[in-house]
Every structure is written in structure tokens, then in C-alpha cells.
Write a structure and sequence with these properties.
The protein is built from three helices and four strands. With about 110 residues, it is α+β, with helices and mostly antiparallel strands. A four-stranded antiparallel sheet has the order 2-3-1-4, covered by helices on one side. The longest helix has 17 residues. The radius of gyration is 17 Å and the shape is globular.
Length: about 110
């Protein structure tokens, strides 16, 4: 399983009841794809939401959102960092799935 973030944006503060109805349509579709909802962060102005999921891949989340007609801005795979981790070791390792290009010395 990987950690996936979904960003949602609204032009005006969203209607909480409509948001809940959309999520009640979405969650069973996500669960059928093996996706687990972790948490959501809702901005105080009601115009941005960031949702965290554990999923087999990002595309399963994108397709569930599309199938249930729930809008989103971005879906991306992430690493989770927290204060209990050795961040120095994290800094030294390459990003997962990203090839590091060889650096050529400059004169």
C-alpha cells in the first residue's frame, strides 16, 4: 500500500451536507478498490480540502472519484514524515521512484 493525497478546491465555501453526500457515494467505491481513507483536512474558509488515503495505487483513487462524479484538483503519491523519524537519514536517501541524474563536475 502507498500513501496518496487528494486535493479538492471550491470557489466558495462548500456545503457540508453536499460534501458528506458525495463522500458517502465515494467511500464504498474506494473501499471496493482496496483504498482506506485515513483523514481529511478542511480549511477554515471551506474552500480547500486535503484527503489522505492508503491505496494500492493513485489511479484507483482517481477512477473512484471520476466514477462517482466527485471533483478533485490533484491526486499524488506521498511519503509520510513525522517528528519520530530520523529526518537526517530521510534527507540522504533519494525520492522513491525518482532516478537521480549523475552530476557532472563544473569547472
Amino acid at each position: 500500500m502507498i500513501h496518496v493525497v487528494v486535493e479538492r478546491e471550491y470557489d466558495a465555501p462548500f456545503d457540508k451536507k453536499a460534501w458528506l453526500e458525495a463522500d458517502l457515494r465515494l467511500l464504498p467505491c474506494l473501499e471496493a478498490q482496496g483504498v482506506k481513507w485515513i483523514r481529511s483536512y478542511v480549511s477554515l474558509d471551506g474552500q480547500r480540502v486535503i484527503c489522505e488515503f492508503e491505496a494500492p495505487d493513485a489511479e484507483s483513487i482517481r477512477s473512484a472519484f471520476r466514477r462517482t462524479a466527485v471533483a478533485f484538483e490533484r491526486v499524488w503519491v506521498s511519503e509520510v514524515l513525522d517528528p519520530s523519524q530520523d529526518l537526517g537519514a530521510w534527507v540522504e536517501k533519494p525520492h522513491p521512484g525518482v532516478a537521480i541524474a549523475e552530476q557532472t563536475p563544473t569547472a
